[in-house]
Amino acid sequence: MMRAVKGKHTKPELLVRSAAHRCGLRFRIHKRDLPGSPDVVFPRHKVALFVHGCYWHRHPGCRKATTPATNVEFWAEKFRANVARDSRNRDALTALGWRVVEVWECEVPTMEAAKALMLKIFKAELAPH
After folding, report:
1. Domains and CATH numbers, the chain
2. On the chain, which terminus has fewer CB atoms closer than 10 Å, C or N?
3. Looking at residue 122, what is its pLDDT?
């Protein structure tokens, strides 16, 4: 059932938040005053991060981005609307001067992967001085 699908505090999102905290980054979650309510916001760095599920947000080329065999038209429209909304939110945040980062659930299967991703995203800020 779709009502059982979580929109916030998913496992990949919790991994990313935990990894960011372990890297010493401070953040806010689900900022409703920003377009799309980004999952994790780093105000000091002006970075808005979305943790996308590969299935719902149609990760290109990912094996998790399958399409149900029944009610194909409904699902095609649902997925198209999700991708269009993501694009609008990304453009609106960029126009406001935010750097937008999309993290796909398949990119962060473990804490180690999530930490590596945080280090990659914030390489200049986390480099030893």
Report:
1. 2-120 (3.40.960.10)
2. C
3. 93
